[in-house]
Amino acid sequence: MNCRMWLYVAVSVGSAACAAQLSASVPPGESVQCTDRLPVRIVKLVHVDVVPGPDGPIIIPELCVVRSGTQVVWRTADGVLEPFELAFADSPGTPTELRTPETGQKDFASKRMGRRQEVLIIAKPVTAESLISYDVRIGTSHIDPGIKIMPR
Asked: pLDDT (tens digit, 9 = 90+) per residue, 65-99?
């Protein structure tokens, strides 16, 4: 075999092992922390943390990168019940409770889910990278993070 083929085999085996490890470490229905990197295809549910800070809300991560069809939940910490709002520059997808074709909704108010506040959407279908800015409002404070949706 030539060098390229060995490299391909090594990368393929490494990717498969990484995906298997990720799927084994995340129980079904559990979310993983969203990051500023494109997640592996098996990731179907990610979360973004909404944390009240001394100078306004803090969003972790500030840029969330997902694939079309991924469920994204913005959530407060367990026991934090202060509601928040998300206001997007463009529709990021549909609220999971609607499960209908694209509604064009841009503003989302959090709802109490157990011991936290949450907003849960399904990232819209895209054919090219779509970067959408949004505001997070807690009380009178707000910040401007973003979400990047990539084709599945």
From this structure: 999 999 999 999 999 999 999 999 999 998 876 55
* Residue 13: its H or E element: helix 3-25
Which of 99, 96, 98 is closest to 113 using CA atoms? 96
Half-sphere exposure of 116 (CA within 13 A, CB side): 15
Q: Does residue 72 contact residue 121 with C-beta atoms inside 8 Å?
A: yes
Give the tokens for residue 120: 């849960």
Cis check for the bond before 61: say yes or no (omega within 30 of 0).
yes
How many helices (DSSP H) and strands (DSSP E) are in the chain? 1, 13
Instruction: In whole angstroms, give the CA distance from residue 139 to residue 112.
Output: 16
Measured over the CA atoms of residue 37, residue 38, residue 42 and residue 43, the dihedral's sign is positive
